[in-house]
């Protein structure tokens, strides 16, 4: 599992193609809502969970997939981008895992992501 407390994530940018990496893990009826990528790692938001992908090794053939179900979210925080600060952040608090934080670069649809979380977690 990804160590979210000590892991330094690069800023994520929207990337629809990154969703292909998690396609084999999706359940029947589970849909990809949005996907984001950093240099190698990424995050995919589905209709049931968040899947964080940590690409490892020199060749990148080894990957760690961490599934974060919306039903385990007890609180979350969204910081949208502003006029001069175009970065945004999403902090999620999971019942048994603790805090998970994602940083987004550039224009991201973080408000839409907050709606996904609210819809499936509340």
UniProtKB/TrEMBL annotation:
Residues 14-120 form the Bacterial Pleckstrin homology domain. Coiled coil: none annotated. It comes from the Bacteria. InterPro entries: PHb, PHb_sf. Pfam families: bPH_1. This is PH domain-containing protein. It comes from Microbulbifer hydrolyticus.
